[in-house]
Structures are given as structure tokens and as C-alpha cells.
Design a protein that fits this description.
single chain, 239 residues, alpha/beta, disordered C terminus
């Protein structure tokens, strides 16, 4: 606790030197390089590391072995405000731009189910929903990404307008449990399509989420996407 982002980089580097597994060592080195690029606000450095990984591995592997562990190293420090807010915003914008680029090149090719993805009201951190959107997009889903702190009463209109087949919400454990339960109950009562909730909030409020009529996904993106796929109901989409 209380370590700076540069200290995190040093800690990872120390762990890397002690690694005996070559595969783990490779991913730890990638993470060190990305942290150093974040500290320096170096877009090109981030792009170089990301492209190096993507040239060798599919997006799902890069997401689960590089980006998610990186966020686990940094997230608690940023949420506790012991890291730099500017660093968090810098990396968040980078991920959003990277996701936007993938959408631009691939979205017209995707023919899978259409999902709305957004953060719960009060949730300002977009990392979780961005990573979900990136992985779901790589699986062929059509994603309508609405970002952070979205009022749930906006979602009914978006779902009806787009013919979406499901809604995926994300939130951290810092959200008020009562508010989460009320918002999800409101949403599930308005719409006939399934609602899914992921992130830390899905772990601490699992019972409340299920009682409200939604699916609690937790933090595992691969398992979460599978749960979504098997629970979607086919609907006629607007052309």
C-alpha cells in the first residue's frame, strides 16, 4: 500500500528477475515496459509494447495476460489516490483510443449479438468496461459502448433504439450497495432483455444483483462472456 507507480514498476522488475517460468517472465517484462511508458506519459512507448504483444498473441491473450494483470497492479493504488490521477487518465484515454481503432476497423464485420456496455451510475473508472468491450468485440459481438457513470434511465431508450440483445454494466466495490440494487431493479423491470453486471461490485453484491433479476459476472472476462452468450435471447435487430 502507498507505493508509487514507479515503485510498482520496480517491484514487477524484481519479481521478473526471480521468475523461473519463461512465459510468465515475458508478460512481466511487457508490464514493466508499459508502466514505464505510463510514468513518462509516452504514447509511443505504450504503442510499441502493445503492438509487440499483439504481433505474437491474439487480443484475448494480450488482454488477460498483459492488460488485466497490469491493471491489478495499478488499480488499488489509483483508487486509493496514492498514484497519479494524470497517469490514470493518460492510460484510460490510450485504452479508449485503442478500442476505438479496433472498432473502426472491425465493427462492420461483426455480426454477433448486439450489447450495450456501460459503467453503473457513480462509477468513473472505465478500465473494466473497456477491457470487456475489447474482448467481446474480438469474439464477434457488436458493442455499443457508453462509458462511465451512465444513468440507468437512459438505457431503456438506447436498448429499444438499437435493438440490443443485452446490457452489460460494470462497477467497483466502492459503489453503494443499496444504490446498485435499486438501479438494477429499475432496469430489469423496464426491459425484457437480460442485464449482466461485472467487476468487483458483482462479487460484493452478488446476492443483490441476482435478487434484482440480473446476472452477476464477476471479474473473469472469459467466463463472463460465456455466461452472456448462453443467456442472450435472439431478437430482431434494426437494420
Amino acid at each position: 500500500m502507498g507505493a508509487s507507480i514507479s515503485q510498482v514498476a520496480r517491484d514487477i522488475r524484481n519479481k521478473t528477475s526471480a521468475e523461473q517460468n519463461e512465459d510468465s517472465d515475458i508478460w512481466a517484462q511487457y508490464r514493466v515496459r508499459m508502466i514505464e511508458a505510463i510514468v513518462d506519459f509516452n504514447d509511443q512507448g505504450l504503442e510499441t509494447v502493445y503492438n509487440d504483444a499483439m504481433s505474437l498473441y491474439p487480443v484475448e491473450i494480450v488482454t488477460t495476460r498483459l492488460i488485466m494483470p497490469l491493471l491489478e497492479e495499478l488499480g488499488s493504488r489509483w483508487e486509493a489516490k496514492t498514484g497519479s490521477v494524470a497517469e490514470e487518465h493518460f492510460f484510460s484515454v490510450y485504452l479508449r483510443n485503442k478500442l476505438g481503432a479496433r472498432f473502426h476497423h472491425q465493427n462492420l464485420k461483426n455480426t454477433g449479438s448486439k450489447l450495450i456496455a456501460a459503467c453503473l451510475p457513480g462509477e468513473q473508472h472505465e478500465f473494466g468496461i473497456l477491457l470487456f468491450a475489447l474482448m467481446a468485440h474480438s469474439r464477434g459481438f457488436q458493442i455499443i459502448l457508453l462509458g462511465a457513470d451512465l444513468p440507468v434511465d437512459e438505457l431503456k431508450h438506447v436498448a429499444e433504439r438499437t435493438g440490443s440483445q443485452g446490457i452489460v454494466l460494470a462497477g467497483s466495490a466502492t459503489l453503494r450497495r443499496e444504490s446498485v440494487s435499486e438501479n438494477i431493479s429499475l432496469l430489469t423491470g423496464q426491459l425484457p432483455i437480460p442485464v449482466f453486471v461485472g467487476g468487483d461490485i458483482a462479487l460484493v453484491c452478488r446476492d443483490e444483483i441476482i435478487s434484482a433479476g440480473a446476472h452477476a459476472l464477476g471479474q473473469d472476462l472469459t467466463a463472463g462472456i460465456h455466461t452472456i452468450a448462453v443467456n442472450l435471447k435472439p431478437t430482431r435487430q434494426k437494420q
